[in-house]
Protein: Aspartokinase
Amino acid sequence: MHESAQLKVYKFGGASVKDAAAIRNLGRIVAEHGRPGPLVIVVSAMGKTTNALEALLQLAHAGQPYAAELAELRDFHANVAAELDLPADELLDELLAGLQTQLTAAATVSEADLDRHYDQVVSFGELLATHIVAAFLRARWLDCRPLIRTDETWREGRLDWVATEAALRAALPLEDLVQGPPVVTQGFVGGTASGLTTTLGREGSDFTAAILAYCLEAESVTIWKDVAGLLNADPKIFADTVRYPEISYQETIEMAYYGASVIHPKTIKPLAVRGIPLLVKSFLDPTAEGTRIHDCRHGLLVPAFIRKTDQCLVSFESKELDFISEENLEVIFGVLAQVRLKIRLMQNSAISFSVCTDFLPARLEQLLARLRDQFTIHYNTGLELYTIKNYDAPSLQRLTAGRELLLEQRTRQTFQFVCRGAGEMEG
Ligand SMILES: Nc1ncnc2c1ncn2[C@@H]1O[C@H](COP(=O)(O)OP(=O)(O)O)[C@@H](O)[C@H]1O
Ligand SMILES: N[C@@H](CC(=O)OP(=O)(O)O)C(=O)O
Structure:
């Protein structure tokens, strides 16, 4: 067996580092399950810090006061550090001063540069969290920004795998990991060749763990969550969920693609390519079995239910009532790609073409501006997209009963439909 197959990668998300008690629990998990042996720990921003940073950026960009919100963010982190007996004041002050500089600059940033600025601001959540966790564990703090190399696709940096693998291998030779303390680094964050910070897309820390595992040929990745493992539905939305003890990479990739928010969709592929198992375990019950995602065969799984809220259904009609042609579709797809709206479901009829996308108002506005001359466009917002994987008659009945389906599609394994949510609007 290759020596580096012994390396483990752990990922702790926002919920598992939401306060001092959670970080103490993380410490126990690392001591009891992660050590001895080489260990790299990926940490996300604490609790809802990323949302708080997004809100701060919005206020700063709009020229509105944000001192109270910034003070709240500082106090939150300072209190956690104090509760953990960490002399972190100087470090926190330094980081908060950096954040303040970025927020001051945000007031004069143009709309066009806002996504770039977003990454410079929002990445502070992971910087703050990793400094606290590393200090608490007496671990080695590693700045991942010079190592996780991306292009300049702000808010969703695309990885340069070759540069990243070379940089990570140079920064983290196995001997150091075997002999030294565990390494703590940021999830979700990367950097460009020119030294600017990027982010990998919301909830992208799972992906960071997979990048590290792939590049360092880890033995396994464990993502520590507040659920018992990968379930057939989000327990916050659906009752009677069932845990999958094991599941294939392919099934998981599809669930994540359809919107099962427990795992970031980009996480699975790098692990599947190198055959690295992904363990989903509960930080509330660390000795419980969890879910093993790996190269396995299984029979038909119980149906999985996935709901995506805040969806938008956009329909395009040619102005002259022409049929929807390949030429028309080429134009529509081109603009969807340019404004970075992902198609979650699509359907065409004779004179109209409909797509379901996430509702992102600024991007939708750009889409309308670019296509309004050519097409008559209608859209509905406040919709929900449901997916049932491995559906059967009872699961279809359970989800569709009493709902008006605005769009539906089925393949042999998967049934999807769009319906009205709580706050639908038409445009
Ligand atoms: N199929 C699923 N199985 C388990 N949890 C799910 C599933 N779909 C959605 N979830 C939700 O994912 C949450 C955990 O993911 P997330 O909040 O991103 O964790 P973290 O940010 O701590 O990494 C759970 O609390 C649960 O509500
Ligand atoms: N902090 C980032 C990245 C992330 O992955 O977080 P979490 O692991 O808590 O989902 C976010 O909230 O999007």
